[in-house]
Amino acid sequence: MSENENREWLGELDHPEYKLALAQFERAAARLNLDPNLCERFKSPQRTLTVSIPIRRDDGHVEVFRGYRVQHDSALGPFKGGIRYHPSVTLGETAALAMRMTWKCALAGLPYGGAKGGSGAIRRPSRATSCSG
Fold first, then answer.
1. Fewer beta carbons below 10 Å: N end or C end of the chain?
2. Which residues carry out catalysis?
3. How many CB atoms lie within 10 A of CB 94?
């Protein structure tokens, strides 16, 4: 990944919750004397997916919501993590929650990796139907 591509991608993760999760990880990693190469690997998600969710409202207009799935790490096993529904959900917030799920599973001794989903599609002012397929 070029430096420009990396900067653009990290910009999408620019959220206070993600910055806080990174700071917490870096503090813990320093106390544990973790290998710097391993620390670099854990600073960013293994995989992210962004989707558009078009919804047709009763009055005929289409509202498009954004959704995210972040898979932080699968070293301990398959990904585990729920979905956060909130109108202002972001990729950065979802990535922070996925990172924390990784640590939670590891500290609890569970054989799962960390993941999280997020969607802003929660408002129901009228009956809504999906526009896809």
1. C
2. 116
3. 30
